[in-house]
Design a protein that fits this description.
Layout lengths: L9 H14 L5 H12 L4 H6 L7 H15 L4 H5 L1 E4 L2 E4 L11 H11 L10 E6 L5 H9 L3 E7 L2 H13 L6 E5 L15 E6 L6 H4 L4 H4 L4 H4 L7 H13 E10 L5 H10 L3 E8 L5 E8 L1
Helix pairs in contact: 1-2, 1-4, 2-4, 6-7
The protein binds S-adenosylmethionine and glutamine (GLN).
Amino acid sequence: MTHAQDGNTIRNSIKWAITILKRSEIEFPEIDADTLLAYVLSCDRSRLYTNPNNVIDATDICKYKELIYKRAAHVPLQYITRRAEFMSLDFVVDERVLIPRPETEILVETVLKRAEDDKFSDKRIIVMDIGTGSGNIAVSLAKFLSNAEIYTNDISQDALTLAQTNVQRHKVIDKVHLLNGDFYNIFVGNIQKKQVDFIVSNPPYISESEWNSLEPEVREHEPWEALVGGKDGFCFYRRIIMGATDWLRPGGYLIVEIGETQANTVIKLMQNELYYDEIEVIKDLQGKERIISARAK
Ligand code: SAM
Ligand code: GLN
């Protein structure tokens, strides 16, 4: 019998993995080594700590090594485990969609806060979400806003196929309508103009030149069309802000995520329309300007 200390114990395997990940300058080698082993063994990370001398069988070691080498090649952890948490909900993700970011939770929370207003209490709330990706924003709003109906689009059919999986997993098919096509045309015939309570979007907002300096996890693995917002990064804001005036009902809100240096320009674009008031910038947990909310007059 193999002595536990000599074999591929949990402790030894994690130690090996951390060395490999550190060599590739992975940001959180300890967390990733634990998460991937827990994934291979289909257990909680806490079980690894309580059983460090358990021996891992050959098949699982082989699988673990394969995943560690993938992570060392800068494949994002969430694409390896095919899971990402957003608003405490579990989403399926893969290379067809952007991995939901914690900052985007602030966009969802801003909508939830605005929707508490009495004017929304007894009515059906119509939400338009531009660029659904994994469906994270749409599904979260469907889960947390009982009276909401969400219309959401994507230009990528691949992304919509995955979003559909998430809509089904979270049992919100009757509240989320997935549409394949460019905005705002795709919403014509699905929603009436001047009837939308919230237009929300986390659009692609990286400029073409910034894209080159993104970390390899993002640049080499996440979809380009989910990240890049034209030459200067503002191409989607121009279209969203101008077009929203046709769709929002008076008193409705436009709420968008922005890159940390984009607030002033986006505010100017909104002011130019003479259609919005109560323009407000909301910071993320790192103190960066991240969300802009504006009310239709
Ligand atoms: N909503 C998701 C999130 O917050 O993680 C995904 C956001 S990602 C930054 C932007 C999404 O917009 C991508 O899924 C991309 O395919 C989609 N997109 C790009 N151009 C589009 C267009 N013209 N119309 C609709 N969606 C578009
Ligand atoms: N926040 C993303 C990043 O850091 C960009 C997402 C977007 O373009 N909307 O790469």
